[in-house]
Amino acid sequence: MADDIKNVFISHIHEDDDGLGKLKDLLKKNGMIIRDYSVNSDNPNNAKSEDYIKSQILIPRIDASSVLVVYISPDCKESDYVAWEIEYAEKQGKRIVGVWAWGEAGCDIPDALDDYYDAIVGWNGERIVDAINGKFDGYEMPDASPGTPRSIKRHPC
Fold this sequence. Notes:
Helices cover 36% and strands 18% of the residues. By secondary structure, it is of the alpha/beta class.
C-alpha cells in the first residue's frame, strides 16, 4: 500500500476519459492517492497549435510528474500524442507504466510503450500500485499472465 501522494501523468486518448476515473478509484481503493497531471475532460485543453500544446501544456505536466502511466486501449496505439508523451517521458528519465484498460482483452500497444516501458500490468489495483512505486518491473497480459509486448500482437482486439 502507498501512503503518500504520487504525481502522475496519465497518457490516454480522450475517448478513454471515463476509464481514468475508474483507474483513479482503483488506485485510491488500494491506498494510493495521485495528483493527476493529465489533460482530460475535467481540465480540457482548447488549444489548437501542436507546438503550443506540447511546450506549454504537456511538457510542464509531464515534468511535474514522477511517473507516466499509459492507459492501454485499442485506439491508443494510433495516437501521435500518446507516442510523443511516452518518448518525452523516457527522455526525462520518468518511470513508464502501461495499464491495460478496464475490461480490455488485449490489443496492440503503442510502439513507444513497447520500446520504453518499465512495467505493463493488468487491471489489478495492488499490481498497478506496485508498478507505479517501482516494486514491479515486467510485462503482464490483460489477464495478469506473463507476456511480452510482441506476444500481444498475436491476440488482436
